Amino acid sequence: MIISMTKKLILRSPLKSILTIIFSISIIIFIGLYINNIKTLETSLRKLSQTIPVTGEICDISGSKTTGLEIDERKGNQIISSQYVVQAKYTIQVVASNINNQNDISTTLMGCNSIDALPLLYDDNIDFMSGNDSSFLTDDKNNCIVEAEFAKQNNIVLGQEITFSLSIYKYDSGVYLTDNIDNIKMNVIGIYDYNSATNTSIIVPVKSLARLVKESGNEVFYDSLKFELKDPGKLNEFKQDVKNIGFSNINSQSVQSVAGNSLIVYDNIYIENASNILDALQMYRLFEIPFIILMFVLYVLVIFLLIKNKQLEMAISLSLGQSKKAVNFNLFLEIEILSILGCLLGVLALVLITDIEIFSLLMIFFGFLILSILGIMLVIKLLMNFDIMQLLSKTD
Predict the structure, then answer these.
(1) Residue 303 burial (CB count, 10 A)
(2) Burial grade of 204 (CB within 10 A; 0-12, 13-18, 19 or more)
(3) Which of 35, 50, 64, 77 is the one with CA 20 to 30 A from 225?
(4) Given CA atoms 161, 167, 170, 176 in this order, what sign does their dihedral have?
(5) pLDDT at 294
(6) Largest interatomic CA distance in the chain
(7) How far is the C-alpha of 47 from the C-alpha of 220, rounded, in Å?
């Protein structure tokens, strides 16, 4: 019935009918594209953390030193376990001496929880014993990997157990103090090629090294700690959390020190991009209601012009004895059917050209349905107040 009625309407007045349909399609597409732009900006903001991750690390008060620090273990662990942080990578650095009971051999020993904590070291650079990989750094076993040249010079091979002493440096009132832990034993499960200014020759799990240090009665201090934010959108909450933990702001005028009591977050690129997206999003949201009102006003204006052109037809129908109510209803039904047809075609076009979700499409459809009903009723009420005889006499 609706299809046959629509067909009759289009055949009776093809130009006006097609214009009504096209205008309805245009309104739906314009509103849909506007809403889709808002959704796209919201999605871009949510995904920004994946495309532009925000990282940070603990540093000294001057902000120029990020390794070779003394970072209080308690404060460091609060960063590591923070709800705002993922992929924390941290190290402890000590000196290993008396390697295999050779007093003249000493080197840097680094405890870390991931090879990513050390620059220029990758899985491909490490020759592991069968059944081992870099995940050994996450456990608490006395295993280690040794730098290839150091291993060659000291006749260290895969599978060997090496013994050494640890020298722990403590910085107290401007003076370095040393405490030794003797007879440490580690199993060599890997040999690695490494070229770095740190000259790290032995790498062990950070948990294992921390345990050894604590068992000797010494405090644990992290040498470095870097991390990535879980959700950069909560950057301000994280910075407040950092202050509560006890980290201070960087003062570039301060003298460099070993105390890791400050924290730097590399958020400039993220903030710049997020600000641009937020500015655009706020602008779209600010004009969303005015834009929809403008579309409604334009729709009412077009309907006004269409119905005004039908006043003579309405006057003839009334003069032939049709009731005003019947004439109004037929006119309303005619325009509403054409408008709904245009609306449906517009929604179909949005499905094809955008990624807008079903809920938003339904909101657009029913919103247009309600506004079109109100608009047509308003225009009919405004234009039905005319003198039939006067209008008919003008055509003579």
Answers:
(1) 22
(2) buried
(3) 50
(4) negative
(5) 93
(6) 123
(7) 38
Assigned token pair, 88: 């924390």
189-226 pLDDT, tens digit per residue, is: 999 987 654 568 899 999 999 999 998 888 899 999 99
Q: How far apart are CA 134 and CA 122, in angstroms?
A: 9
- What pTM was estimated for this model as a whole? 0.73
Residue burial 23-48, b: 16+ Cβ < 10 Å; e: rest? bbbbbbbbbbebbbbbebbeebbeeb
Instruction: Determine how many CB atoms are found less than 10 A away from the CB of residue 226.
Output: 21
Phi, psi of 226 (to 5 degrees): -125, 160
φ, ψ dihedrals at 55, nearest 5°:
-115, 165
Q: Are strands 161-172 and 175-192 parallel, antiparallel or unpaired?
A: antiparallel
Of 127, 5, 24, which Cα lies nearest the Cα of 369? 24
Record the tokens describing residue 169, joined without a space: 């440096």
What band does 381 get if pLDDT is binned at 50, 70 and 90?
Answer: confident
Q: What is the pLDDT of residues 114-170, one digit of tens each?
A: 999 988 888 888 999 999 999 999 999 999 999 998 898 888 999 999 999 888 776
The amino acid sitting at 10 is I
Strands 175-192 and 143-147: parallel
Instruction: For residue 247, give every residue at least 6 positions away whose Cβ sits within 8 Å of its Cβ, in sequence order, or none.
Output: 58, 75, 261, 262, 263
